[in-house]
Amino acid sequence: MLSIVIPTLNEEKYLPLLLEAIKKQGFSDYEVIVSDGKSEDKTISIAFNAGCRVVEDEGRSPARQRNLGAQVAKGDTILFLDADSLLPDDFLPAAYKEFRKKNLSAAGFYLHFNSPKRVYRFIEPAFRIMSYLGQYFFPASVGVGIMASKIAHDTIKGFDESIYIGEDYDYINRLAGVGKYRMIASTFLYFSVRRLEKEGVAPVLWKWFVGGIYFIIRGPIRKKIVKYEFGKY
Questions:
Q1: 195 in a domain, yes or no?
Q2: In the β-sheet with 181-191, what is the strand arrangement from edge to edge?
Q3: Which string of DSSP letters, residue by residue, matches 207-233?
Q4: pLDDT-based confidence at 81, cuts 50/70/90?
Q5: CA triplet 121, 136, 123: central angle to 5 degrees?
Q6: Which one of 35, 54, 167, 190 is CB 3.0 to 4.6 Å from 69, fit for a cystine?
């Protein structure tokens, strides 16, 4: 069984789109857990009305909310998705089948940016190359989509909630230490560009670059070296 965990904070605009995409998948062996940070909009009611399991906490951080969702997960495999993600057709059956066939402990996904702007057509192949090479030399993945075995997640005690930013990189790095990490090759995820559009492509890319270099050189980022806000988009 697959447990889909979605951390949310004021996601009434995007969550319905993701939940509808999940329902349209050719896959039924799953549960959806919405882990909410006390949203002030209709996020929780949307989740309840869609038949999701809901957990709430005032921690308001992706790491905290992913961990809370994973704690109540019943599946042998957990799929962490951001609320603004969108799924291509047959994403769930393809990803779950490949994950189990390859006996993975963790997996990341190649991303397609959900915008026709030319700049994103340049970013996509660069990200794909880095992701492909990283699975062999430097395991890391972005939190927009991460698949992990429940056993491996519990073994490493989940996400490190003391990390300010880059908890997804740290999580994958530690999962790779207890099992096998690979990028899923049979499908992909649509990546929302809402943060890039609001903050600007260059500033966000620079923030990612600084965070990545810091993580490689000094390890997990536990202080505010860059500005990051959860639930502001």
A1: yes
A2: 53-56, 30-36, 2-8, 77-81, 145-149, 106-113, 181-191
A3: HHHHHHHHHHHH-SB-S-SS---TT--
A4: very high
A5: 10
A6: 35
pTM: 0.90
Structural domain contains residue 167: yes
Higher pLDDT, 6 or 27: 6
Which H or E run contains 96?
helix 91-101
The closest of 22, 3, 145 to 77, measured between CA atoms, is: 3
What pLDDT, in 10s, does the model give residues 130-152? Answer: 889 989 888 877 889 999 999 99
* CATH number, residue 89: 3.90.550.10
Q: What is the pLDDT of residue 225?
A: 59
Give 143 or 107, the one with higher predicted confidence: 107
Inter-CA distances, 10 with 54, 98, 109, 142, 166, Å: 14, 33, 25, 21, 21
Q: What DSSP designation does 75 have?
A: S
Distances, alpha carbon 195 to alpha carbons 114, 151, 192, 203, 221, in Å? 12, 33, 8, 10, 20
Domain that holds residue 93: 2-218
Comparing 64 with 117, the larger pLDDT belongs to 64
The tally of domains found in the chain comes to 1
